[in-house]
Amino acid sequence: MSRRILMVAFAGALLAPGALLAQDLPVPEDLPGRDDVRVLAADAETLSGRLEVVHWPGSDALARRTMEAIGARAALPGLPDSVPTRAVFYLAPDEATWDFLTGGEVPEWGAGVAIPSRRTAVIPLFAPAGGPAERERTAVHEWAHLGLHEYLAGLQIPRWFDEGYAQRAAGGWDFERAWRLRLALAAGAAPPFDSLTLAWPRGATEAELAYLLAGSAVDYLAQDSGDRGLGVFLARARAEGSFEAAFRSTYGLTTDTFESRWIAYVRRRYGWVLILTQAAVFWVVAALTLFAGWRWRARRSRVKLAALRATEPPTAPAYWEGPPTPPIGGFR
User: Fold this and answer.
1) Less packed terminus of the chain by CB within 10 Å, N or C?
2) pTM greater than the 0.90 cutoff
3) Residue 300 and residue 217 share a domain
4) What is the tally of structural domains in the chain?
């Protein structure tokens, strides 16, 4: 049984081809807890016959949410709506099941694994994954890996594109991720750019930042032509049987030239200088400055007012007052 890791990543990993799982998917004969397995088959029109979620007792609701999350993003950017044609997702309830399905070599912080050769993905339920929303995003991320590799079967896909594409499919680039990348670059914490082509970082923090870089690469690639351009490119890559040739004919440059331009783009757009020039930062700093100034002025005014009151004569000096009024009726 082959257990060699081909690629490891933070929100999704690809395992090497090999008989990691038995042929009779979705439930291998020697799967731990096989007798308790439950299989949720998709009944929605967009997923019917294409997706099954294998889970164990106590995770019925999570299985349903996984199915719904994938169903909401079943159509992948630039790919036919029918891809992936079939996928099986395992919701591993414990480490023994996780190790069996992944070969036991995925980092403990891994949030999900895709196995394109088996049209299978595995998501751990026993480890923190950033909450339900992040787990659902991971499911879509793995779905995208399976779809991309099925459509481009046999092609060598650069790691930056593979992971960046899955990032885009799972929710794309947003303000929070952009800021995290800016801060990482400003602090010098981002991994080297060539790590996206060579050995993917195995540390949790470095791998997460590598994902941000990969996401920015596909965002940069699609900023002009969008998903339509991705569709043209992927169709050409499939027809020509070459990622590189399709890239040149679609975008008019080699991947090496693209990577050079992308690196310059990342440093220009997400560099530390931009942190100081962003409108959002300006207004936050301006608001904090105004608030601090208001607090200081308010405090100074209170001190001055207290000093003035201390020097004022009493409102009713004793020498202005006459003799006390005798009580009515003689009572006190």
Assistant:
1) C
2) no
3) no
4) 2
291 occurs within a structural domain: yes
pLDDT tens-place string over residues 294-309: 677 767 766 666 666 6
Same-domain status, 138 and 287: no
b or e along 107-131 (b: 16 or more beta carbons within 10 Å of the residue's beta carbon)? eeebbbbbbbbbbbbbbbbeeebee
CB atoms within 10 A of CB 238: 17
Alpha-carbon span 53 to 87, nearest angstrom: 9
Question: How large is the C-alpha radius of gyration of the chain?
Answer: 31
Domain boundary (270, 286, 320) is at 270
Backbone angles phi, psi at 258, to 5 degrees: -60, -45
**Strand locations in the chain, DSSP E?**
5-7, 14-15, 38-41, 51-55, 87-92, 113-115, 120-124
**Residue found under tokens 């979705």:** 26
Whole-angstrom Cα distance, residue 77 to residue 150?
14
C-alpha span between 76 and 79 (Å, rounded): 6
The pair phi, psi for residue 195, each rounded to 5°, is -70, -20
Same domain? For 261 and 191 the reply is yes
